[in-house]
Amino acid sequence: MRAQENAIALLKSRRPGYTLPRPFYVDPELYQLDLDHIFYAQWLFIGHDCELTRPGDYITAQVGDYPILVVRGRDGALRAFHNTCRHRGSRICSAAKGSSVRLVCPYHNWSYDLDGRLLFARDMAKPFDPKALGLKPIACESAAGYVWVCLSDEPPEFEPFRKAMTPYFAPHGLGRAKVAFESTILENGNWKLVWENNRECYHCTPNHPELCRTFPEAAAISGVTGAAEDPMIGEHWARLEAAGLPSGFAIADDGQFRMTRMPLLGEATSYTISGADAVARPLAPEIATPSIGALLTFHYPSMWNHVLGDHAVSFRVLPVGPKQTLVTTRWLVNAEAVEGVDYSLKELTEVWVATNDQDRRIVEENQLGVSSPAFEPGPYNAVHEGGVIQFVDWYAAAMERSLAGRRARSAVA
Question: Which of 8, 45, 278, 309 is least enclosed, having the fewest CB within 10 Å?
Answer without folding.
Answer: 8
